[in-house]
Amino acid sequence: HDTMRKCAACAETIPDGTGPCPECGEPVVPAVRPAVRPASVTVAALFVGLSLGAHIVMAALAFAWGRMTNLPAQGGRAIVQIGRGGFILYGLLMGHRLAWQWGRIATAIGFVVFSLLISVQIGRGLQDPGDLVIVPLLALQTVPLVIVFFALGARKAREFFRLRCPRCRQFTSQAADFFFRQAKCGSCKTAW
Question: Which residues are CB-neighbours of 48 under 8 A, at least 6 positions away?
Answer without folding.
Answer: 85, 88, 89, 92, 103, 144, 148
